[in-house]
Specification:
homodimer, MgtE N-terminal fold, three-stranded mixed beta sheet, 22 helices, disordered N terminus, membrane (chains A, B), magnesium ion transmembrane transporter activity (chains A, B), transmembrane (chains A, B), transport (chains A, B)
Chain lengths: 468, 468
């Protein structure tokens, strides 16, 4: 919050990091780079002063490893360490590793507790303890408590700064307390009501406090918090509660229902987005890869998936191998067979994508899948018939063989039906078995459309033309 | 906000809509269904009373068309119309179509302006005008203004209820005004500062007002709003600004920079999520399909994609057709050739997925792709070599033909390299050409890995074994 400038449209006057399309302007990065190369701290500060933490993070991601370390060194105490929460993990660790524990402690003490936890959780236990020892008692206690909760839990993501008052206070008392206490969070939109043992009783929005008269009791304007989140809860589950009830913030409680922190929607937006992305990446056969990962990391994480697919490919090859006599006698089948298999694969990918997404958003489960099953089978039949007519006609025209057109058309309808069923049922069954449908579905589904595609087409052709 | 009940954990006592895994409990739906079938309004109200709007929406989605209409009829004025903003568009239209304009007007007048717009924007202009005529002047004006902005713009999603005060007011005046004015939004966390022409000057968080002394001028505690959003801006662009600057709410201004509304993060979360999902669906070859769409809608939207893919399949088939002589002489090639093509396809899908996502999050563009290009080529070489060694060995063992193992291994490395290049460059080029990389990439990429796979393997085999 920049109080020094009263003009609303500040960003127009200074050089902007982004162009009109939202892409980073190369000239901006070059200017930063030159200032770093020249060890010109004054110029550097002029360039990056006033950047938002996400913008500074973006600048860091565009620099080389060396330039990043030098930038942080040159900025010294003026560096906005919140930017570290905005860069990829690899870059964050790189920068932190280059800093002394003393400097990290200084940096951490300037951050909100959730940002501080974000940085501390990646460090070794030894370093983390040394840094915590350097912090004031109250802050150390708060951070230790958050760090004690499991990885990726609500307790790790929560802010431990919040305002809590007893129910018998008046609105006036509460306002006076907020005016006088210096140890409040930077921004907050509700305050919590707790009993003497810090057990959560309810919450009051700031707009409700502002609109109440000073003598009113907090008790009479508070409302019970129906969606308190246990600190041990996984962050993805917490995100689902936020989505389900359109929450902007939620109290986090320990196992005794005592208030320990507050989760806000801005911490949760990242989780929501990551979750939607995760399915995309998994269905594409990549893990939680980041664009800044090294060649070896990327190659290793991707090769496992390729090996798994190799089995499917060999399975398909051995199905074809069964029909080598047929192919030898009628070699045109070899050219046509991949069409049947690949169209089935494409149709299955459509059904599978919709199913995986519907499972993730809980729009479908094994109990209510009947209607969807009927729909997918009908879609498979309709589109299968359309594609079959076209492909049969083209094949007839191309090969001059009417019977071949019929064979490929029938095989196509069969494989499109198999594709619909596999694309729907395999993700559902995998989900029921406790596996992640986004990761494993594609292998099984492709195996089925390949096998049914090759077996159906070559088998039907062998029988129709009497080649076996 | 339910003030009538002071016990914090209300939901434990009443029957819950969700089980522990977050799935809808069938017994709950059955109970609602029975109450509807029996025309038992009392029982129905007892069942769905106190449900959150998203929960009520979920219940509606589990009912049949008839049951939905009857439920809304039985509930009468007690129905929470906000639930309509939580169901699929098809279901919303179905329910609204069954209501008289008079009842829609009553419903709309109870909703916040953004929810009202959400319902009104789907109606025909005639119905919409008739409904607006029935509303009080001030509300009608507000809604008309929001509806005048383009579809999916910030102006459509904004709330037109907000608190705005002049800069020369004191904190005390502001608090008194908020205590007395009845026409304030239900919840808000900041107030805006405007000049006499309603031009936006800045904003103050409620926490800042609460912590200031009554005689202080608003002017002295406000800060300029750097991220005001033009009402005409597309909602996706607005969502990007929210993400970029971790905003919880933002002022919406008209072309003269006059304050017209406020966008809050809960409206934006849906947009952010939709955008992340969009790429997943598009890469899977489906449009913005919803799980409640009919067979014909789904079939029609998917078949276009299948026809496009058919061309790729025929292209691959004609490449194979070039080598019919080769295959006739060495039929084992027919069984092995899909392995090379499909492994290339899988590797390309990995690179393409990462690239499409990186384009969407603006982590990569045509200017900074050099480093990524180098990485992808190296990953393709590394994994290509690993897969090639395995596949060459297996082929040698399987066929007893060492030369065949060498040929397939070399063809595999070549196709894996082609896959890396195509998976990266095609999305980037499509994006540069202004096309959506998520939609079109897969066709082109598969065409390349199929053609290179078949051509490379069969061509190399023909040459190596002297079969042409």
């Amino acid at each position: 919050m920049d109080d020094s400038n009263r003009e609303p449209r500040v960003q127009v006057e200074r050089r902007s990091l982004y162009d009109a399309d939202g892409n980073v302007v190369p000239a901006f990065i070059d200017a930063v780079r030159h200032a770093v190369a020249d060890h010109d701290a004054v110029q550097l500060k002029a360039e990056i002063e006033g950047l938002h933490e996400t913008e500074l993070g973006e600048v860091l991601e565009h620099l080389t490893t060396d330039e990043r370390k030098r930038l942080v060194g040159l900025m010294g105490g003026d560096f906005d360490y919140t930017a570290l929460t905005e860069v990829d993990e690899a870059i964050r660790l790189e920068i932190i590793d280059a800093m002394s524990n003393e400097r990290i402690a200084e940096a951490v003490s300037e951050l909100a507790s959730d940002d501080a936890v974000y940085i501390l959780e990646d460090l070794s236990e030894g370093d983390r303890n040394e840094i915590l020892e350097r912090l004031p008692f109250r802050e150390r206690l708060r951070l230790r408590r958050a760090l004690d909760y499991p990885d990726e839990s609500a307790g790790r993501r929560m802010q431990t700064e919040f305002v809590a008052v007893p129910p018998f206070w008046t609105v006036g008392q509460t306002i006076d307390y907020m005016r006088e206490d210096d140890d409040l969070p930077e921004t907050f939109s509700e305050i919590f009501v707790v009993d003497p043992s810090f057990k959560l009783l309810g919450a009051v929005g700031l707009h409700e406090i502002l609109r109440a008269k000073r003598p009113e009791k907090i008790d009479s304007i508070m409302h019970p918090t129906r969606h308190a989140i246990p600190a041990e809860m996984d962050q993805e589950e917490a995100a689902q509660i936020f989505e389900q009830y359109d929450l902007l913030s939620a109290a986090v409680v320990d196992e005794n229902e005592r208030l320990v922190g507050v989760l806000t929607i801005d911490d949760i937006v990242d989780v929501i987005q990551e979750e939607a992305e995760e399915d995309l990446l998994r269905m594409g056969g990549v893990g939680d890869e980041e664009i800044s990962d090294t060649v070896v990391t990327v190659a290793r994480s991707r090769v496992a998936w390729l090996f798994v697919n190799l089995f499917t490919a060999f399975l398909a090859a051995s199905v074809i191998g069964l029909f080598d006599g047929t192919i030898e006698q009628m070699v045109v089948l070899a050219a046509l067979m991949p069409i049947v298999a690949s169209m089935g694969g494409n149709a299955a990918a459509q059904t599978m994508t919709v199913t995986v997404r519907a499972i993730a958003t809980r729009d479908i489960n094994i109990h209510n899948s009947g209607r969807i099953l009927r729909r997918e089978v009908l879609v498979g039949l309709l589109n299968g018939t359309a594609i079959a007519l076209l492909i049969g006609g083209v094949t007839w025209a191309w090969s001059g063989n009417f019977d071949l057109g019929v064979v490929i058309a029938v095989a196509m309808v069969v494989n499109m039906l198999a594709a619909s069923l596999a694309g729907l049922l395999i993700p559902l069954l995998l989900n029921r078995a406790g596996a992640d449908p986004a990761i494993a579905s594609a292998v099984f589904v492709t195996a089925i459309t390949d096998v049914v595609g090759f077996l159906g087409f070559l088998g039907l052709a062998s029988w129709w033309f009497g080649l076996i």
